[in-house]
TrEMBL record:
GO terms for cellular component: plasma membrane. Its main location: membrane. The keyword Plastid does not apply. The keyword Membrane applies. Belongs to the tetraspanin (TM4SF) family. This is Tetraspanin. The gene is Cd82. It comes from the Eukaryota. Keywords: Membrane, Transmembrane, Transmembrane helix.
Length: 225
């Protein structure tokens, strides 16, 4: 079985912590913004502006890390997926969520393994069965995808043994499949990111404007001596 540290990487951990921090900050930001706008509290509006700016800078930093560290991330992901494939066990309930997630990736992208189906030959369970079974989520046959997880039995294997070349599975590895998906949907991804950034900038502008209005009103209310 895999130790917990084998299923993670420094880059992925950093990304996860950033996302958790941004999520928590977003909740706090929304509360402060509403409270500050309703009660016209300049201090809270200032905090709202600061939170928005921090989130925007964090998103830019995350994008830069992904862009400049993409090869490192690819290597780390490769190690994680290869370990997952080698130790894949449908009866292991402790790892069911992770294994189901990988089955979902293989099914949706129509791929098998990280670089190809050959990696599944290193799975301990399949080796013990002389590769006469194969991962159902890799199958290119609709009847195997009904279950969507676990292993399916190869029909009439030659001499009771087989190789990945005998399996009715997709030839494309998931690494290439994910890259193709990202390229095909790059416009949508950039559009969503740009839209989010524009909304955050508008929020910053509106909070500053409201803060200035409150300051002007307070100044006009001060009695002249």
């Amino acid at each position: 079985l895999l130790a917990p540290t084998e299923m993670s990487s420094p880059s992925l951990k950093t990304g996860a912590y950033i996302l958790i921090g941004v999520g928590a900050l977003t909740m706090l930001m929304g509360f402060l913004g509403c409270l500050g706008a309703v009660n016209e509290i300049r201090c809270l509006l200032g905090l709202y502006f600061t939170c928005l700016m921090i989130i925007l800078l964090a998103q830019i930093a995350a994008a830069l890390v992904i862009y400049f560290q993409k090869e490192t991330l690819k290597v780390e992901l490769s190690g994680i997926v290869v370990d997952l494939i080698e130790n894949y066990d449908p009866s292991d309930e402790d790892k069911r969520n992770l294994q189901d997630a990988w089955d979902y990736v293989q099914t949706q992208i129509s791929c098998c393994g990280w670089t190809g189906a050959k990696e599944w030959e290193n799975n301990e369970i399949l080796r013990n069965k002389s590769n006469t079974e194969y991962p159902c989520s890799c199958s290119n046959r609709s009847k195997d995808l009904v279950e969507g997880r676990g292993f399916c039995t190869l029909e009439d294997p030659l001499n009771g043994t087989a190789t990945y070349a005998d399996w009715p599975v997709h030839e494309q590895g998931c690494m290439d499949g994910v890259e193709e998906w990202l390229k095909d949907n790059l416009g949508i991804i950039l559009g969503v990111c740009t839209g989010v950034a524009v909304i955050e900038l508008l929020g910053m502008i509106l909070s500053i404007s409201l803060c200035k209005n409150i300051h002007s009103e307070d100044y006009t209310k001060v009695p002249k001596s």
